[in-house]
Amino acid sequence: MSTKHINQSLNPEDSHEDSFAPLLEQFTTYLKARSHKNTTLSLYLAAARHFLCWLTQQPFGSREITPKWVREFIEVHLPGCHCPSPAPKSLKTTRAALNQLLLMQGHGRLHAPDKPASTEIEASLRQFIAYLRDVCGLAPTTCRYRCRHVRGFLDNLFGDQPLVFKCIDAKRLICFITSQSCHYQPATLGAIACALRSYLRFLQFTGLIPATLATAIPTPANWRLAALPPSLNEDELVRFWSVFDRSTAIGKRDYAMARCLADLALRCHEVAGLRLDAIDWRAGVLRLEQTKSHRVELLPLPQATAQALIDYLRQGRPTTSSRMVFVYLWAPRGEGVRKTTVRGAIRRGFGRAGLAWSGTHILRHTAATRMLQGGASLKAIADVLRHRSIDTTLIYTKIDLPQLSRVALPWPGQSS
Q1: What is the mean pLDDT of the chain?
Q2: Is 406 inside any structural domain?
Q3: CATH for 210
Q4: Is residue 271 part of a domain?
Q5: Which secondary structure element, helix H or strand E, spans residue 280, and what is its range?
Q6: How many Å is the Cα radius of gyration of the chain?
């Protein structure tokens, strides 16, 4: 779609068109260089034209495109906008489009405003993050999750009021955990309880509360070994592989990502963070450094996985200076994908295959199931899954149902 066609489709009678036409041409070239699709290009240009029309009608002298004016347009004009069609009014699309306009002009990205929070709470959480990182040695993702749950507790208890630690007592902790039980699954509720205990240990570490308070938080009931780990059987796995269109670049990339998850039992963020120099083609091994356990791991590279990667690297991966294995094929073309891209590709594959979606971890469970049914020992499975303790791997002993049926005792009250 040409720029002229897009401009005419927006508002061909706009009296300000000539004044910002060169900027729109520059913006079009910028978006095309990022490999945005034509539909996205049209939406972004429409949002930019809407903003520029508003900008030219403002009484202030300088009409320079700055984050200040973009924020005023988004927060003040857009909610009550009565501009005639086709002026776009979508907040998400407009913010994304104007962020690209700001980046093109050399400014920083304009983020969505955060929920107002107490300054004291945020200061305490910053110290908590430093404690989790430097004292406990936790991964950044774990630090963020724990802070999110603690922020919810502190906002609920104090709001905008001063942070008085002596107000945190066993009764309030129990009431908060109990109130959350109707909103979350047992596993998430356990994570909230764990985050609060961690925060209380931090407060104890800094001498702000007594040492016994952390023990007051109840442990939510969650029998993690009560259910079988979800996994795909052989027929479902074959159907899953068949839905990837490997004649296209996106199909080759998504199929290779899926093979890494199901054959190597990688986690979602490990697939997204995979680098070219992590693959030793001659030795047939994969070197993982950004693991959950912060250790360097070596994994054997199966032939099917290697072939999927080769097919993608040779015929699907765009030319780029990035050292990441999996990169975007559209904007931002050539940059490494995020874990949300991996998750989205697998979720869409499950939908096309008619399989129930329960997250990318089902492929990790499938890898463990196939190894166990193939005769691998629990120690070997634990090594591939990179579990620190073999007790974590014991959950997979329940999935070998033929072997379990041989040692199962008769149910009481029934004949053997």
Answers
A1: 81
A2: no
A3: 1.10.150
A4: yes
A5: strand 279-280
A6: 27
Same domain, 273 and 135: no
Give domain status of residue 410, yes or no. Answer: no
Pairwise CA distance, residues 17 & 12, whole Å: 8
CATH number at residue 262: 1.10.443.10
Angle between helices 249-264 and 361-373 (to 10 degrees): 50
Domain-located, residue 225: no
Given 216, 242, 258, the domain boundary residue is: 216
pTM, to two decimals: 0.62
* Number of domains observed in the structure of the chain: 3
Number of residues written out for the chain = 416
Instruction: Please tell me whether residues 206 and 238 are part of one structural domain.
Output: no
Quick one: CA dihedral 178, 180, 184, 189, positive or negative?
A: negative
Cβ atoms within 10 Å of 208's Cβ, excluding its own: 14
Q: Provide the pLDDT for residue 314.
A: 95
Query: How confident is the model over 247-276, as pLDDT tens digits?
Result: 999 999 999 999 999 998 888 989 999 999
Calpha distance 128→199 (Å, rounded): 7
- Torsion, Cα of 317, 323, 325, 329 (10° steps): -40
Q: What does the alpha-carbon distance between residue 196 and residue 179 come to, in Å, rounded to a whole number? A: 14
- 336: which strand partners? 327
Give tens-digit pLDDT for 153-196: 998 888 888 888 888 988 998 888 888 877 777 878 888 999 99
Which stretches of 142-214 are assigned E, i.e. beta strand? none
pLDDT, tens only, 277-326: 999 999 999 998 765 556 678 888 999 999 999 999 999 999 999 999 99
* Tens digit of each residue's pLDDT (9 = 90 or more) over 29-42: 888 888 888 888 89
Rounded to whole angstroms, the Cα distance separating 230 from 364 reads 10
> Residue 64 is part of which domain span?
3-104
